[in-house]
Each structure stands twice: as structure tokens, then as C-alpha cells.
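Quick one: co-fold with flavin-adenine dinucleotide.
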Amino acid sequence: MKNIKYFKPKTIEEISKIKSENDARLLSGGTDLMVKMRAEIFNPEVIIDTKGLEKEEVKFYNGRVRIPINTTYDELIKNEEFNKRFPMIVEIIKKIGSPQIRNRATPIGNIANASPAGDFLLSMYLFDGNVEIKPSNKIMKISHFVTGPGKIKLKNDEFIYSIELKEMEGYKYYYEKVGKRNAMNISIISIGVLLKTDNDGKIEDIKVAYGSVGPTVERFEEIEEKMKGKKVSKELFEEMGEEYMKVINPITDVRATAEYRKKMVKNLLIKAYYELIK
Ligand SMILES: Cc1cc2nc3c(=O)[nH]c(=O)nc-3n(C[C@H](O)[C@H](O)[C@H](O)COP(=O)(O)OP(=O)(O)OC[C@H]3O[C@@H](n4cnc5c(N)ncnc54)[C@H](O)[C@@H]3O)c2cc1C
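Sure, here it is.
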């Protein structure tokens, strides 16, 4: 095994410099990075630990939350304000890994990993998530930032410094991930739904995101648009499920066949309907 150099810089500029001058990988919680290095999927010459940076707090402003680098899942679960404003995301986080994993792992690591099965990544698509990049100070919408499995738009000297998500007040929500053993496994398929209705039970807004059925988390705003103004019913969700089956083309892998995943696209939406009308 080659010698790996380890750095723990204290400033954004230092991280940026070391990253741009070396074959380097950033280390946040390390729960993805270490697994990939052990499996020799990643073989960096340099590791840059981001935990040398001064710790910033999670902040709430103008109906959004800003989650800075090095914030762990555990810290979000324990944050009362975050629980009050983002109960769906807390539910999603509680299904990630184990308490030991959540104690170290970070949402930013999950996003940088860009796995279509990434649970936190899915919530970025539902909650209008943005990524803040340093040192350029660029803010990028999640759907522009993630371009494929493991692929994100970062230049050599850049890294993710924070993320922000929008509060979705007055929405009902549903989240489910199907896996062989719930939390400790990569999901076969996952779904997240946010639904807002008016007093007559008509859809004011709906957001649906699927994980593990394509190269990235998938959301189709044109299908969501078609549902607006219609009354919530099982028939409507079935119809919507059919539409998703037309546009989602999952693959077969070691975890499940494409056919199974496609069927689940519709079935999970119908299940969501029953949970959302409770
Ligand atoms: C047993 C086990 C169970 C797991 N279960 C789940 C699960 O249920 N759901 C799920 O989604 N994931 C799961 N994971 C994967 C992992 O825990 C999560 O993706 C986690 O959020 C990664 O965060 P991290 O801070 O540990 O990332 P790290 O491992 O530190 O980093 C992940 C990747 O992002 C890069 N990176 C880190 N920080 C930055 C940054 N600031 N800017 C740019 N790039 C950066 C790293 O170089 C690396 O390539 C599991 C992992 C294990 C080992």
C-alpha cells in the first residue's frame, strides 16, 4: 500500500491549495471514503481532513436552513429547531446507517458521494437544496451540481462548504426506502413525497423524488405540474404511478432487477397515497 499523506488544514485557502496541487480526497466523517479506499476504488495520495476548520453552527434564516461543513447527522437529529422545521429530513436521517455511522457521517459527505441511493441527497431534491462552494463562493442548485453517479461539478481547487434547504411549511410527507436489511444497506429503491392540499382536498403542490432508479436521484417536475389542482384520490396516484413508469428506466444490479424496481415505482406511490391521507 502506498504512503498516504494526511493534512488537517485550518483555513479554506489551505484546503483549496492542497486539493488543487495533489491527487487528493477530502475527508469529512470518512464513512464513505474509508470503505472506498479499503476496496481500492479510491487511491488518493493525499487526504485532507476538513475538521481542522473552525466549527460553524447550523443557522435558520428566511425560511431556510444553512448546514455548514463538518455538521454530522447526529448533530442535526439533536437540533430542536431542525426537528421542528424539517421533521421529514430527521426521519430520513434516522434511517441512515447506525448510531455509530450517524455520529461521524455528514450530509455534505453524502452529497459529495453523489450516489443515486444517497438518502440525504434525496432530501436535497425535495427541499430545494443548494450547495455552497468554496473558495469561489458559488451557490449551485443540487440538480445542476450532481451530474451522474459519483459525479459532481467541482473544480480542482473547490469543495463543498455548506448546503441550504428550504422549509416546506404545511406539507404532509412520506418517505420509504426498500432494502434487504433496512438501514445498514443500500436501498433497492426509495421514495420521498411532499404534498400540500387546499381545503377541498385539491393538490396545491406535490414533489416526488425517487432514489436508486437512475444515475441520480430522479424528480420530474412536469408530472408534478400535471397533478396540481386535481383532487387527491387513489386513482390519481395510480395514474401518476403509470406516468413515472414511462419515464423512469432503472437498471438490473446485484440488489434487484429493473422489472422489480419499475413495478415498485408505482406501488410505492400508491402506498404513499394511503399514508398521506391518514
Ligand atoms: C455501514 C454503513 C452504512 C451506511 N448506510 C447508509 C445509508 O443508509 N444511507 C446512505 O445514504 N448512506 C449510507 N452510508 C454511506 C455514508 O455513511 C454516507 O454517505 C455519509 O453521509 C457520508 O458522509 P461522510 O461525512 O462520512 O463522508 P466522507 O466519507 O468523509 O466523504 C464521502 C465523499 O465525499 C468527499 N467529500 C467529503 N467532504 C467533502 C467536501 N466538503 N467537499 C467535497 N467533497 C467532499 C470525500 O472525498 C468522499 O469522496 C453508509 C456507510 C456505511 C459504512
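If it helps, Residues 114 and 150 are 5 Å apart (CA to CA).
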